[in-house]
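User: Hey, my collaborator sent me this sequence without any context and asked if I could get a structure. I don't really work with proteins. Can you help?
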Amino acid sequence: MSSLFKNSHELRQHLKEHPSLTPPGMSLGNLLLECGVITPSQLEKALNHQHEHPELGRLGQVLLELKMISAERLGLTLAQQLGIAQVSLENFDIPPECVKLVPESLARRYLVVPLMLDGERLIVASPDPTHCELLHLLGFVTGKPVEAVLANANEVEQAISRLYASATAHELPENEASEQSLSLHRIKQLAEDPPTVRFVDSLLEEAISRRASDIHLRPGEHDVVILLRIDGVLLEIRRVKHSNLSAIVSRIKIIGGMNIAERRLPQDGRHMVRQGERTIDLRLSIMPTVHGESVVIRILDTRQSLKTLDQIGFNGRDVERFRDLISHNQGIVLVTGPTGSGKSTTLYAALNGIKSSGVNIITVEDPVEYQIDGIRQIQVKPQIGYTFARALRHILRHDPDVIMVGEIRDQETAMMATESALTGHLVLSTLHTNSAATTITRLLEIGIAPYLLNASLLGVLAQRLVRRNCPHCLVEEEVSAHVRSTLGLSRDEPFYVGSGCEHCRNLGFAGRVAAYELLEVTPALRALIEPSVSAQSIEQQAIHDGMRPLTQSALQLARDKLIPLNEVYRVRLE
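Assistant: No problem. I've predicted the 3D structure and written it out in structure-token form, which is a compact way to encode the shape of the chain:
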């Protein structure tokens, strides 16, 4: 098995002993056939698929797309059979002058990273080091002989974003004058400067490739901190000089369709990004602070966020219970939880499941987060009086079978949703409450009559998102006695947590999963819905009817080693 080189010193030592990194070429298909990794019929199918879908590019990518081979097995086969050196790019020391040799557009298009110069020879890292045409192209562009080593595709993507953003940051135009004294002409100059454009584009590319949900630009007194929210956690990725802030914010305002001359008031904007076959929606928010304008960019990636009900994290029994609730032709199903708990993702998963059954679905949202084919989606505009309640009145004349209301915020919207459910429509919506039981008492408090709620409510799903352990670096978790005592656990029950490794970028977690409680409104529970009913009485009845409380749902995930116990403690419901 070939060695994994983690820095330039190790790779240089290897180069002294092995002057040629890339052996004489053999086609990838023939190599995989020789190794017994794929069969002749699989190769023929892959080649036909490649011919029909040229946008997929190289054969290796086609094999991955068809799930005939894993990325790890593909890389391992190449490294072992061809004796190609493997590198880890996580902490590889790549000199800036080397990065400048390969244009960023070429690096992103072909997934290649310039690593180092060995004399006159340029060494690059690629997920496919047998790509002879790429090596010839790089040789033509750089004017140097080029040889390739093997690197993980995700690491290459992340290295490209990191390296080219850092290289561009040094070239950003600086503004030493006061922001308030900038002329409109100077603002436009800053925003259209090529390094500014490249920096913002690289930042967006990096955030999307790392599955970030938000980008934060947080100005301080002396510098600007750039952070990404990944799996619910804000991670600092770099800092830039405070004098670069005007250029970056001006560029963001332009792509978001905002007023670049306005620096005293908050502004919101929107921008669409195309990445291959994907369209990614960006929601931009800019607010003035004492140290300059702060920016948050919400990334709405349909591919990452549009899931099926099976992918949400429900167990087998509960996914069938939830499917049963949304199969009714009338009634209300609510999904509750705080901001960022995955409510919209669950509702979209439900709509995706329903839309195949030949029904007319209309949504009214603020804002429309993901556009789904086959569903009519309406954006409310409160500034002109087009509210959820007013939109609902018009929707009812549009012959809907299923209505999704983005959020029930007030009595008027709640009444319209209830009346819609009673007149033969299935209504899906969200509400900001802590638990499933308190959702019922909250609706009673805002003025929904008990008899209306009794007749219309089908069920409530309360959920939270918890960070999933990285499966590659599990170690036993050290849990404080206070946490165990609060959750009623014994002192010797083991729990596990990710310690951090190259697979999870040393974070210890990889993705998130839902912890939830699903309340079904049974006849016994309906009998309890009265003005004076307590949430505790409703919860006790729901548990008796088969609801597993959210805390117990999260605890089961921890016992299955999927999440750490501290995540259970964080989202527990008292």
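In plain terms: The first strand starts at residue 4 and ends at 5. You can pass these tokens on to your collaborator as they are.
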